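Predict the 3D structure for this chain.
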Amino acid sequence: METDVLVVGAGPVGLALACALRQSGISVRVIDKAAGPATTSRANFVHARGSEVLDRLDALGDLPEESVRAMTITTYAGDRPMMKIRFGDPGLGTAAPPMVISQARVEARLRERLAELGGRPEWDKRLTTLRQDAAGVTAVLADGSTVRAGWLVGCDGSGSAVRKLAGIRFPGVKVSERFLLVDGRLDPELDRSGTSGWAHPDGVLGAMPMPGDQWRLLAYDATFRDDKPGEEQIAERMRRILPERTGLTGLRLHDVTWASLFSVHRRLADTYRDGRILLAGDAAHVHAPFGGQGMLTGLGDAENLAWKLALVVKGRAAERLLDTYQAERRPLATQVLRGSTAATKVNIAGSPLGRLLRDQVLMRVFNQAWLQRWTTYTTSQLWVSYRRGPLGGRGRKPRPGDRIGDLACERPDGSRTRLHAELRGKWAVLGDQAAFEAARQRLGDQVASLRAAGPASGLAMLVRPDAHLACKGGPAELARWLDGALG
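Done. Predicted structure below.
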């Protein structure tokens, strides 16, 4: 076997998966059909859950310092502000902030982290054929070379070659017509403390501040019918509609660095696994960009799959553990698809009644503080729990499957640390030495022994590498859970 895992796709999901597997000592190859790293990106917001994943990969680095702290969205009708949403701390114990930063910068930091772990993406490697058997997967590339791997994960986007070659269906529907997307500078500058949006009968338009004095402009434009416009045509269209929809007649777009257009589709793979072939990120689910849930959900897929695949590759868990990946992550994708579709339909409301409901009813409702707190809580994905899944459970909170916040902890030598800082490819036991030894007997050296810095609950907690509670109790309960979950 040339490698334990072959990852197809060197975007944020594939790179995060590769980093997480390398943290656990698994050999990985990452291939991508592109000639080199992307310099532009549609995603430009990382919610708190995504920042947590990057932190647990030790890949967060100085991204928070590079990012723009633009945590408000103000919606206007002309020059009249109608709604202002303020994003803040959802109060769920996280040390990882939400960030306005380009996907390209996130990918660059993940490549740096992968290099630190001894790996690198291989560019200009297009997958053409897949063959799998009971022992592994053989991937044939366009240059005629082959790669033999124990497992293969498709992280290669909505047009996934892996998904197509595996014969996995990807049903869905088109949700909207075209959106224009342009990165450039604005003169005069808008307020950079947050995103500005304009509700207009011809379609919404939004402007988000980006690092380096850049702005990202997004506009719904169902009447733009050019099938294959160049970047300059798209930019020129944006220049024309910008003053029309904002009412700011002197607003000028210049120094455009990227322009694109897209339509919104909603699709969900029938299955995330076919034997030794798995899917993650946009290869498994695609949806509208509203809410910034795409890259966020994909990073969560990568982290969830990585620790399970690592245990299976090492022979510490039966292959059936991989079935819990779909059982835990696909229901979340279904929720995200529904929410982003609803947000899209609200934003592109075309009928007079639809615009009336959006502009006069929903705008006022969303000015309520409690609803803004709910919005922050929902979009952060810090609420995600697997308690209803096959590894979840009941009882007093926190329940098995619930996320555990970034608790202040102590190591056995008394030094201070954070829980999530210890979950870098490892499990953690918050409890006594007997509970730790029970977990280590099954998990090996990939487990950290910790004590909560505050008052002890009396029950040990076994925390998964993705910061979700596996179980709580004494040594016998921990051993019983591990035997049942890992097989």
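The chain is about 35% helix and 25% strand.
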